[in-house]
Prior knowledge:
Largest sheet: none
Low-confidence stretches: none
Shape: globular
Order of helices and strands: HHHHHHHHHHHH
Number of domains: 3
Number of helices: 12
Mean pLDDT: 84
Number of strands: 0
Helix content: 55-70%
Strand content: under 5%
Amino acid sequence: MSKKDKDSVLDDCEKLKTEIIRDKVSEIFRNHPKKHIAKIEELGFKYVEDDDYEEIEERNVRPKNQRQRELVAYFENRKKLSEKIFESYSEEKTAENPNYPLIRKYYKEANKNLKSLLLYGLDNYPGRIDLLSDLSFFHEFENILSILITYYTQACVDQGNLDTFSELAKDFYYSTNPDGYEALYALRELFGPETDKREIIDFLIAEEEVGERKASQPIEF
Length: 221
């Protein structure tokens, strides 16, 4: 074998190793989002965090317009919850240049008014995926597992679009799995055999089982 061929083989091996590692890390972040550092270190890597730029941003951030000032006033108990406040929150999240650090810091504080706003939104607009995702993010800073389960479960039961249902079920699983809740198996009990939703849940369960088996396999160098 020529040197060129040997180099090509070595390059292919390195690429394969890189792909395997990347897949392993992706599985860890997907299946163990709250324990990813420990899981990464189990692979033999040292996890090093960069400076906490988010904390710096959140410490220095200020509202930049009237909508943001109204939200801050609400979060800090200077305004009451209303449809207008909820609309301001929704508009800020979908704005061309949303002030993410401003909103994010209230999540990290587990602000009780922010939680009330999210629940208000889900009570009035049931099943909205963006609000369920926001509630899941809030759960990272305050344990509201039972609330999260209730709203996700109802959203999955009510959702008629099967593609959206599939996304909801996956989000439900990823949002609650770190807490030990088996969302897919819980949903499986709600839908009868041979129904479209049951078929989707069975497929997602099989997919996750394959992913878990791959993630548990040792990396060979």
